[in-house]
Amino acid sequence: MEKKNILTYEGLKKYEEELHNLKVNRRQEVAQKIKEAREQGDLSENAEYDAAKDEQRDIEARIEELEKILKNAEVVVEEEVDLDKINIGCNVKVLDVEESEEIEFHIVGSQEANSLENKISNESPVGKALIGHRVGETVVIETMAGAFSYKILGIERAAIQD
Question: CB of 107 within 8 A of CB of 87?
Fold first, then answer.
């Protein structure tokens, strides 16, 4: 049995839009590039043709990947997330005890994780350690870089962006 891909509603929409764009727009654009490159004659030394075929292969691979993600998607309804304890789909504000620094995380499924946006996976060491804990608790997190402590300051519903 394949692993469920846990997605927030925002993540689901993002993947659906990307899939639609690839199928409707990008496929046609690449087909046009291939057609134009074919019209130039000899395909054996045609760099444009090779590039367009590579792009077509990449697009088809991404479509296949997105369809697989969406087929096995389990959407977290963020409006229904229990805010008494940390779970997927919520924003968490913590205090790094050693650094005396406040940090905010959005807990998401592994497909949506993006450290640049402070979206951490429920499967990451930090996400795994935080899930199930409540405001006021201090969580010790073991990572390859060593152990550190986060005091949970707040749990909120993630803002939904359409």
Answer: yes
| pTM, 2 dp | 0.74
CA separation (Å) from 46 to 35, 37, 51, 123? 12, 7, 9, 45
Distances 85 to 43, 48, 125, 133, 150 between C-alpha atoms, Å: 60, 54, 17, 5, 15
How far is Cα 109 from Cα 31, in angstroms, rounded to an integer?
34
Helix axes 27-38, 47-71, angle to 10 degrees: 160
Per-residue confidence in pLDDT tens, the chain, 162 aa: 667 888 888 889 999 999 999 999 999 999 999 898 888 877 777 788 889 999 999 999 999 999 999 999 988 876 777 788 999 889 999 999 999 999 999 999 989 999 899 999 999 999 999 999 999 999 999 888 889 999 999 999 876 554
Read off the tokens for 135: 């405001």
Chain centre distance of CA 129: 19
